[in-house]
Amino acid sequence: MPGTVFFSVSMSLDGFIAPESSEELMGQQWMELQQWAFRQRFFRENLKLGKGGEEGRDNDIAQETFERTGASVMGKRIFDAGERMWPEEPPFHTPVFVVTHEERDPWERQGGTTFHFVNDGIHSALDRAREAAGNRDVRIAGGGETIVQYLNAGLVNEFHIALSPVLFGSGVRLFEGIDAARWALDLVDAEPSPHTTHLRYAVRAR
To answer: Is 51 helix (H, G, I), strand (E, B) or coil?
Structure first.
């Protein structure tokens, strides 16, 4: 239903969602992790990477994730990395609320994306995102530390992991620091494709 708080990430088989250094984002290892997404027609069109791309269930999932999202929340680390790499028209096309200690005026970009900088914590950022999202959902866009903060606060309803057939060995673990004693997961769906395995979970208190 509208108002759901979720996250959707690609993860390696050994549990990592990004390299340790933000300088390595868009490197070979990260591109292998995200390869399933970059193949898809919707993803390519949204990032203006050119014509073509695959259609099928992976493409549908990428599009469904985008269409359900009315606003996003992210941490400062992922924003700093993205600020260097996103095109003038970032791929969000919605308001994005950045949890940070930095005071900064909203940053309006092409295509309907405006970054708002929130200095009073994750609850405030989520409240603002919910208001901006209207009848759509709020996505916690990362990084790993921000996702865990929202999980540990009991603010995430569900999540989707695209489990990619790659190994990292080191990097940013998705569930580093999770309060496992408080939260349990229910498997909602498992859907394999030629390039990844889509896993969906609902989050509940133990």
So the answer is: coil
What single letter denotes the amino acid at residue 7? F
Task: Judge contact between 76 and 117, C-beta under 8 A.
Answer: no
The answer for residues whose C-beta is within 8 angstroms of residue 75's C-beta and 6 or more apart is 98, 99, 100, 142, 143, 145, 146
Q: Is the dihedral of CA 178, 181, 186, 192 positive or negative?
A: positive
Amino acid (1-letter code) at residue 90: P
Instruction: Give me the DSSP letters along 140-182.
Output: EEE-HHHHHHHHHTT---EEEEEEES---SSSEETTTT--TTT
Express each pLDDT in 97-147 by its tens digit. Answer: 999 999 999 999 999 999 999 999 999 999 999 999 999 999 999 899 999
- C-alpha to C-alpha distances, 44 to 38, 49, 110, 115, 143, nearest whole angstrom: 6, 5, 17, 22, 22
Summarize pLDDT for 148-198 with one digit per residue, the tens.
999 999 999 999 999 999 999 999 999 999 999 999 999 999 999 999 999
Question: Length of the chain in residues, anyone?
Answer: 206
